[in-house]
Amino acid sequence: MPGRSKVVRGIRRGAAGLLSRSDDPGTGKGSGAGAAAPGGSPAASGPAPLWPSYPPPHYRGQLHPGFQAQMAQLRSQAQRQDCNWYHTFELPDGTVIPGAWDLRGGEDAYLGGTELSGKRVLELGPASGYLTFHMERQGAEVVSFEGGFDVSVDLLPVNGEELVHEKMKLMRETVDRVHNSWWFMHRQYGSAAKLVHGNIYDLPGDLGEFDIAVFGAIMLHLREPWGALAEAARRTRQRVVVTDLIQDRSAPLDSNIMRFSPLATHEISNWWSIYPGAVVSMLERLGFRGARITEHEQTHHLGHDMDAEPVRIPMFTVVADRG
Ligand SMILES: C[S@@+](CC[C@H](N)C(=O)[O-])C[C@H]1O[C@@H](n2cnc3c(N)ncnc32)[C@H](O)[C@@H]1O
After folding, report:
1. What does pTM read for this prediction?
2. Residues 199-215: pLDDT tens digits?
3. Based on the structure, what is the number of domains in the chain?
4. Does 52 fall in a domain?
5. Is the CB of residue 28 below 6 angstroms from any atom belonging to ligand 1?
6. What does the DSSP 8-state code read for residue 252?
7. pLDDT digits (tens, 9 = 90+) for 220-260
8. How far is the CA of 204 from the centre of ligand 1 (A)?
9. Does ligand 1 have an atom closer than 6 angstroms to the CB of 30?
10. CATH number for the domain including 219?
11. Cα-to-centroid distance, 1 and ligand 1 (Å)
12. I want to staple 233 with a disulfide (CB 3.0 to 4.6 A). Which of 94, 147, 286, 315 is the partner?
């Protein structure tokens, strides 16, 4: 039936799309084709996905060095071909691993010029972790947070149906392989950053306090951006950094606007077109003031098609400080 096939097509795109692109060129980040990226489709062999799995009680204890070592060990069998490369990386020997988003040279703009040395940073949704390791190189102690264990990322329903199977498939075939890439690069760089999993709307209670919280291109994918922002802000002493796509310019960027499901009805991972003005308003409510909005462009292979010429995608960053 025509409606169904449309949905199925959309689901495929969306499943890739959570970490990939849509057909809308303005919304390349997060929409489209993670699974189409090199290494993006599940390998015939290779380590089995770790999703779903039992969380530790209340998702606590994940920062313990022994727990992190165990997670690293579980991912240690994953080789380059077992990874989904969301970001472009340079290995210590100079080899370049191409990824759908190449943030090299754009890091400072992406993070709103935030001073990172000596800061404890909570990074929400690191994907392959390019920003994790960049921030660590700048002197930050980084804790990165992702869905995982038994917690899926959020997908929009279609025709009233919750996409239970699609979430399972997405977590096992794409997100799990993105987590492989985070740990692969963690090994390569000898990183001390930590990766924890759970519910972004109810963060594990023992993560502690942070100087800075970073939301890089994740708000558009969240069912409840306000809930996630408030949850992270509660644990943040100094600064919140929110970077997201500029998906529409029909109003001034400082307008307090969030458009729901801005793309085609079969697109399932792009929940919102968020104007920076809406982020500023949310942060004010949370006690983060003096917000600054900046615009920048980042390099992306549309559709995560690494054969496609990269294009520059417009993005914004909002930084606001407590007090
Ligand atoms: C579009 S990527 C952004 C990667 C990186 N922060 C950047 O800016 O380049 C979004 C990331 O957020 C994660 N994510 C999306 N929805 C999530 C949710 N509900 N809970 C936890 N993580 C989520 C995805 O797994 C992915 O790693």
Report:
1. 0.90
2. 999 999 999 999 999 99
3. 1
4. no
5. no
6. -
7. 999 999 999 999 999 999 999 999 999 999 999 999 999 99
8. 17
9. yes
10. 3.40.50.150
11. 33
12. 286
